[in-house]
């Protein structure tokens, strides 16, 4: 793999909640190369959105570091994004909220060009090009966001991030708010852009089927930690961590066979009080006594990394 | 009356039967049909799926079952619940049926439950109103219901508020509230869209179990054919307020005959499929009042013929219990080809 464009090392993010500190992300390492899609999956509350926001500088880090093209990504707060971070952009979940309703589409997209030192005329010309690139007519520059459907608005939001000529995009649930058919369009578009513009893409989604289609590598998160990470096909074909197994088994299949998906009982625990030992042990079907005591760290097993000592042990003699 | 006969052939004496239902909604440019000549039936202990993109008329169809349409809506056709014609009832008579005979679970569990009324009160007021049971009796039934939908520590849950539960738990509680007055038909509008897959699996299993154990008739409305595959025995695919295709779920998903059904399936990321990009349906569904002439799907259909722009297709039976509103039937050949060894 080439030099990563975005590198997260031992990243932790904490929130204050009623006087206590809640660690939403705890010790995550992740690297994204240009031309690569990394899928980040997990149930709600597992910290994937927090991690995504921290990666682009929207959340302060409690520990660890994030580097983008060799520069440290620090919490921006209300500050303007520095020029060296302009290549790192975020696509948000809700295209109804992420576009200013009172500004024309062309102006929204041209902002990225203006910030890079271009003129307004350059900006509008580039906006027209980008709209065509994302599959909208260039005449859309003169329209307002409300004149478009959800899928079209998400295209506009993507065009806006492309105006800064990014080298890495973080997309936080970019298709969850859209219709089935619009979801397919946007997932395909993101996949194409990665190839065309040689972007790195982190795709955060709770929809594993979409990540499966688009991502080269997949990272499965549970309660602030990555529990399994590896090549998408490998992880999908033979998930090793019990949590990944449960996620894959829970997906309903539209094959007409009428097989009910498998339930994973329980909810993600409160991150303010994570269970001792392995964080998944209270819901884990194969948990042993020792899982209560030993915190699990990622270790290589069968072509990917998992954080489960039982599965690492059982896989060891075979390899 | 072809759609009529085809449905009654397969499901005789169904608990809920909708025949040639049309709903016209008032807009600034006059009345427009949001639901156009739709028929279906669901029996006790059966799950019926209604699928389609947003704007296909699924939710308006559901609301018409409750008489909860926007003011001024014009309804024609018949909705019979166990022999009672719902379209002819007064508001007061409808109120006695809503919740008691037919109940609804909506998409968003966060808004379905009252935020500052304890869960217990929300469950028991329903029972006391419709079933006339004592306070203590209602309380114990409520605890049993929470047990049924697998809420841990039901006694404590009764004293808690909606905000104290996760999304999946809230949806379970919303189902418990819908079941409180022991309805015979449950309408679930996108019941799992806002939930994680693991939680979704739990809700689907719960609906399936309620259907088997209590003989509940369930109508699941969703755009997700995967959700349908697991639960629904029969499936209606709607497009622009009309029935595009209806039949046994296994048949529709394995051998879709309407190009729109095929399109919905192709747009879905199939868990087993590898590599190939998703195939979205070009264009978007027509908005209310802008439904094209002829087959409403023809501008987006890759098999469209000149006749499709003028002739409005009616659902015709093509096999027992299988209706298709696509006279050219372009996928018939594809189906037989695929079946050939």
CATH architecture of the domain at 1-89 and 217-270 and 281-290 and 315-341 in chain B: 3-Layer(aba) Sandwich
What structural class do you assign from the helix and strand content of chain A? alpha/beta
Strand order of the largest sheet of chain B: 6-7-8-3-9-10-12-11
For CATH, the homologous superfamily of the largest domain in chain A is named as P-loop containing nucleotide triphosphate hydrolases
- Estimate percent helicity of chain A: 25-40%
Largest interface, and how many residues on either side? A-B, 45 and 50 residues
Please, what is the average pLDDT of chain A?
Answer: 89
Count of runs of 4 or more consecutive helical residues of chain B: 13
What is the CATH top level name of the largest domain in chain A?
Answer: Alpha Beta
Low-confidence stretches of chain B: 1-11
Structural classification of chain B: alpha/beta
CATH architecture of the largest domain in chain A: 3-Layer(aba) Sandwich
CATH topology of the domain at 1-89 and 217-270 and 281-290 and 315-341 in chain B: Rossmann fold
Counted by DSSP, the helix tally of chain A is 9
Which word captures the global form of chain B?
A: globular
The biggest beta sheet of chain A is recorded as: 8 strands, mixed
SSE arrangement of chain B, N to C:
HEEEHEEHEHHHHHEHEHEEHHEEH
Element order of chain A: H for helix, E for strand: EEEHEEEHHHEHEHEEHHEEH
Q: Count up the domains of chain A.
A: 2
